[in-house]
């Protein structure tokens, strides 16, 4: 042990400072060795220190709950199979999430109540491990200066840094992947000799990656691919040890696989079949969500192919992007190291190309691709390092270093101004966060809920509208909210409140993340609303707001509607609309009551202009609101303006192609005008959005009967449509069932 410490001290301190003292050195300056250690130490301290202020990420509580399920699985020796049973609403059994399980075990063992800081500390340490191994891989290729540059660039990347505070899924996976890549390179570099410690660490790295998510098996594929390329390159020297290397390689992969399975309940229940099932079925359980991209609300399963690449280009610091380009341009100067560059470029770019080609369902920027980022940063560091080596003039070298430093100013300044919201970063291509506001999602992981909650705890006061002993705080993200208020339940109670339904819910203060707010509301100035009492800002734009209730007429009107007291409901809702013309609950509810009254009593047609006026005032603030536009389309239809109503339906479909009411109303309009084919077209378009429902089935059957088909013919056509639909989305088993049902139906018909 003492000899190892002595060698370490000599290599990292004695030799560098002796060289510095002598002012003579050959090759790379040894002073970069202790600088590397210093940067590593500073990175670890920085991560642990900065993360103290971080909030809870949007997914954390789902993983906390699953960790308890995993804990129960092992505690009961597999009898409690909740952690190993995927359901339609829960795909977490497909994840092993070993870091979550580890920290949950620690928290349970020591009875830690305030457990989030411990989860975040583990995330910091695992992020630091990623920085460490990225630096070590860069050192292996470009020397200690390249290693230092890698660590600095990775730490100063706001998106990576911000996720390092609390993302215990994507950050550990990124670290496990770069760790695996490092040991793959080290293992192949050592051939024909095989170092047992390297083989063990490679197996552990593969196990670590796979134990976080099944995509870690990609490291096995990387190992196989790079091993084949390396063997072809050095086949003369490696041919004698081919079978020995093959056996060791298979052993490493099998060992890594077994270790991953041991900490993964779903895999333990079926070590081969369930892992394959997880690998092939994960995408089927991804939830499609609407998010702001390019100034429009778009569904995550129907984004432009360039979503991920564009997000990366907008949010990676220019110093990294330029360094990456330099590494591509200057790669010819490092031809002897072509294999290392192949590994880095492939691991950096292949997953991005795959997501583009596969049209994967992605959201939340490019956090799903964070595992590619260490390779990107290593290449960027190598690019800058190669440029420094290429220029001979001393002052030119200093100019390159100065250029790097100047390019780092933008991300560093952002981090200083906006801590702890480092990850809400956009580079100069967009022109800072202010220019991204209303065009792209900002705090999509809801870090700002903590600051907003703390403000409410410190400043909220009861008033005449407070209905109980406690102040009621509402939020869509109820689990983090409960955690933030867990120590002050004597004064506060929490409630689940959706933004669009806020008027029909009881709350005194409402915390709203800007994520998911329509760009049209931001453009018209309707957001933040007039009753905003606090804003959490990044630069000069709100990422989270706190609303204080100014009236409860909307709530009282909604409650009266539920009781069937429409007269009282109209009274309250009119007061709410008068106080807040952009109150969605009041506007939609009041319009619905008036339209139903006009439908029942044609003598009350004077209500239609009144409804139109209410809706038009609301649409000035929320011009793309689907509910209001379809309500207006109904109003136009009842006023005899079918063509205008149909145009509004099409406009709403363009705004939100999954909004069912727009298709249904358009089909009704077409059917009323005897355009049966047009009605069928709208309903089939609705079917192809995946919005299959009993109402849609009934509507299709009605249209088929209008086409002259009898009951058997109508059902036969329906089954044919459903078969085609399910085949188009890869659900062959369901498609076969409808094919069989169609065949059976026709056979029964012929028998008759």
Rg from alpha-carbon coordinates: 30 Å
Can you tell me the residue ranges where pLDDT is under 50 for at least 5 consecutive residues?
Answer: none
Strand order across the biggest sheet? Answer: 4-3-5-7-6
How is the quaternary structure best described? single chain
Give the rounded overall mean pLDDT: 93
Number of helices: 34
Give the biggest beta sheet.
Answer: 5 strands, mixed
Helix-and-strand structural type: mainly alpha
- Number of separate strands: 7
Overall, the morphology is: globular
What is the first-to-last residue Cα distance? 90 Å
Percent strand: 5-15%
The residue fraction in helices comes out at 55-70%
Explained architecture:
- This protein has 752 residues and is mainly α.
- Among the domains are: 1-30, no CATH class; 31-284 and 291-418, no CATH class; 449-548, no CATH class.
- It is built from 34 helices and seven strands.
- The protein has a five-stranded mixed sheet, covered by helices on one side. It has a two-stranded antiparallel sheet with strand order 1-2.
- A hairpin with a 2-residue loop joins strand 6 (532-538) and strand 7.
- The mean pLDDT is 93.
